[in-house]
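> @MW can you paste both from yesterday?
MW: sure, first one:
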Amino acid sequence: MLREKVVSPDHRRLLLNVSTGQCIRVTLPELSGHHVFGPTTEGLLVLLHRTSYAVRLLNPLAGNATDLPLATTLLHLDRYGTWLDDDLDPTEEFDLTEEFKILATGLVDDSTFAFYFNGISMLALAKPGDACWTLVDDTRSLEDSLPISFQGRFYFPTNRGLMVVDTSANHPPLLVLAADLTKVCPQKMSTIHLVDNDGELILVYRNIRRRRFNKRRGKLTTTTITESLECKAYRIDLKAMSIEPILQLDGRAIFIGLRSALSVSTSVFPSIKSDSIYVGGDDLMLGTSSEINGTYCLMDGTSELCGIFGHGGFDMECGHEVGPWGIDDYLSYYVTESNDD
């Protein structure tokens, strides 16, 4: 579901099939009264009711919704129970929208979904119809992680490596190591993103390189700091539990942001550059310098202006449009973190 410049009050939304390029408009009255997260890898929208904090999965094409446990039941689990007094009704005393913000959702097996509640750093599992959530232990390392559902399993990049949710029958659900990520060296201003690149799991490393230059004139020294965008891509071999750097994306491009990551075919969208990383407009992603540009070419390490977060469709200084949106603008906005619907 694409995000648009103006949200339709009658809940009409634009759905894009990134495999074919087909785009349709649908009316989704089920969105009324809900925060909207997602979509999941399976194409479902994640809904959180604004007052009851009920969690639902909506199929936007069929219009049917699946109910899951109330998010407020998480507050009464042992791990988080001390946050509120037992006699206090959180729905009456607090606005818990930020606490229950859902960063990612996806299948961990044939019928169980994982939900990562970013505000309270909780990874919880549930099946449709369940009355309560099942917590995954030891999720302290997941803070600021951007998870992904890939081929029916749920993965997290962490400082311990690439972790996957294991739901084997002989133990409670837990995180286990899926691949070694020591070849990636996160920096202060860097982020790591996972993306399904046409059936291959790819890791994208994004960093803002800062360089300081001192220029001395007599007794006066002036300091100039420059910033430049740096991206690297790695193919993850889950069988070998390792990663290898790559410079090509096999005729595809990747869009990354603090909301999600997405891979598209440049044969379906010819205006998008192959073997390139398109960076969304999050402040953390693009740094503070006007020299930071939105598209990075893996082949030669160059970057250039593009779309609404460069100077193609939106003037960042003046705050108004300078041209019509293209597909790269819509996809860049799609992966960028902002308030949901």
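MW: second:
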Amino acid sequence: MKLLHSAALVVCTSRCLLRLLLFVAVTPAAVAALQLTMGTGNSFGRVFRISTWGESHGGGVGVVLDGCPPRLAITREEIQADLDRRRPGQSRITTPRNEADSVEIMSGLNQDGISLGTPIAMVVRNKDQRSSDYLENDMSVAYRPSHADATYDAKYGVRAIAGGGRSSARETIGRVAAGAIARKILKQYSDIEVLAYVSKVQDIEAQNVDHETFTMEQVDSNIVRCPDADSAERMLARIDEIRKSGNSIGGVVTCVARNVPAGLGAPVFDKLEADLAKACMSIPAAKGFESGDGFAGTLLTGKDHNDEFYIDSETGSTRTKTNRSGGIQGGISNGESIVVHVAFKPTSTIGQLQSTVTRDGQEVDLRGKGRHDPCVLPRAIPMVEAMVALTLVDHIMMQVAQCELFPNVQDEQPNPLGKMARRVDGERKQKYTVASAGSVSQRVDEE
């Protein structure tokens, strides 16, 4: 019986393990099997899959990317460009930690820089970690309020004190490196472009940003990374004010994916916005996610919120007059630009005195030390872009595998949907009997 219990425990998921343990004797073998599942949660994706590794103050951080298509030309410089946008020490409103974040590609490419279809491993060595900022003061025994210190300790019974270990934003280096490859795949597949910008700092909101035309150059033209110059100045003044007081500040990053084809996603558990939400909410300090109009849409009626359809006179494709859905309807992309918003909390490590407790349960006051971002938003831009790009490539691969394995040769097919779609069979004849004034009557009986 012990062997049967152990075998069942090894192959089940963590949730299944917990349920089984309620009904079987807790033997040493069962405990050992349960321990095999610890440390999970470091991978993302199904077909296009990443696994990140490394701690903030360890020897380095990196990623293993599996599922990259073969015969794709990849250069170190392309990956480094995205990492340079993420790295610390860029301006006075980011952490002054001085890291070049120089990437090394360890596997997955041939001598000509062509992907082999095998796992691509990338590493960035840590050079400027200062563990004494954490180990030689009260931060070595006291939990930082709203940081992962206490919850990591509660889960694992041990934690990487210096730099926060895996809870540090330094973990996102692997995501951004893999995201750079995803960005190239999207560009070659369908000219898809993924761009993010800081849309809100506290109550200061960007104005007049056209989601169809703003560019990366406009985003990177100021240290706040907001393409609206006037709003960026006011945002910067607010961040500086908070920074000088030893405090921190949060806000919102908006990400737009253009030229995404219709059909990505699924209607139930694997909705495209659900996977995008998981991707973006896994970024350190992320505390909220909206797709399209999000919560603001709850203030509208159905008539006001619905994106009405029309036929594009140039392409013949079915389009929407507005994009309150954010490019996703029913969990599936509709061919319009995908728009998501990610809320980031203020950095938890601040230079002001706060009440907390030590590991052994003593109440103390703590003033944070070390080098930290007073506002994570500017450096979160490439992180959000990377996670959105990774999610889209994964969904493209699943779409091709399931729905495009065999060509659709049906005589009657739906009119092409979305901005990038084109009708190639000329003008379509009317096949429906419609009421006067071009209206169509429908009886809808949904649960």
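> thanks! The chain has twelve helices and 16 strands.
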